[in-house]
TrEMBL record:
Keywords: DNA-binding, Phosphoprotein. This is Response regulator transcription factor. Residues 7-124 form the Response regulatory domain. SMART domains: HTH_LUXR, REC. It holds the Pfam family GerE. Residues 152-217 form the HTH luxR-type domain. Gene3D superfamilies: 3.40.50.2300. The keyword Protein transport does not apply. InterPro entries: CheY-like_superfamily, NreC/VraR/RcsB-like_REC, Sig_transdc_resp-reg_C-effctor, Sig_transdc_resp-reg_receiver, Tscrpt_reg_LuxR_C, WalR-like. It comes from the Bacteria.
Length: 219
């Protein structure tokens, strides 16, 4: 590793989360330097082209297309930029989709600040980095092993990305207020998403939803 800090661009649709990550990175290390941020696909594409960072920290789900769309539009023009997914989602299909699109690694938002710095430096140096339980999804998918995690599920495909996020946290035992805090949405919005998921899955309560989510390796 050289003495020059790794330049980083943040992509996430939550401004509060971006501000938190930027503050943490700026305060704990001089190994990385945040050079820009964006809250949408269009802003990300323009900002990455302008700043030409070494590493992009990339959210998977955004309202206007998400991380895979950013990768699709940026990589042909800037093949040297490295992408590290940073997401609340640890679902197999999300991990596999963004890695197939060209990301070099995938870590979840439960990662500590120091671990995130190490992950950024490692992908900048050419390593692939994954949160522990996510590496198996990638190995299974790309090795085509028997029993590999499903990439497509017709029932799961009925749910929006935000509904999956809510379902995942609900299945882990989070209260509605905790889900709202984690996802930066209101409790009322959480209730609306849960009602929609119950309707689409034709299930009756959170306990059935938890079992349904567990069967699909969302938890």
């Amino acid at each position: 590793m050289s003495d020059t800090p790794v330049t980083v661009f943040l992509v996430d649709d939550h401004a509060l989360f971006r501000a938190g990550v930027r503050t943490e990175l700026d305060s704990i290390t001089d190994e990385v330097r945040v050079v820009g941020e964006a809250g949408s696909v269009a802003e990300a594409v323009a900002g990455i082209a302008r700043t030409k960072p070494q590493v992009v920290l990339l959210d998977v789900h955004m309202p206007d297309g998400g991380g895979a769309e950013v990768l699709r539009r940026v990589r042909p023009e800037l093949p040297d930029v490295v992408f590290l997914a940073l997401s609340v989602s640890d679902a197999a299909e999300d991990v596999i989709a963004v890695i197939r699109a060209g990301a070099r690694g995938y870590v979840t938002k439960t990662i500590s600040s120091k671990e995130l710095v190490r992950a950024i430096v490692r992908v900048a140096d050419g390593d692939a980095v994954f949160s522990p339980r996510l590496a198996g999804f990638v190995l299974d998918a790309f090795a085509d092993r028997p029993g590999s995690a499903p990439i497509s599920d017709p029932e799961l495909d009925l749910l929006t990305p935000r509904e999956r996020d809510v379902l995942r946290l609900l299945a882990r035992g989070y209260a509605y207020k905790e889900i709202a805090s984690e996802l930066f949405i209101s409790v009322k919005t959480v209730e609306t998403h849960v009602s929609s998921v119950l309707r689409k899955t034709q299930l009756s309560n959170r306990y059935e939803l938890s079992r349904w989510a567990s069967d699909r390796r969302l938890v």
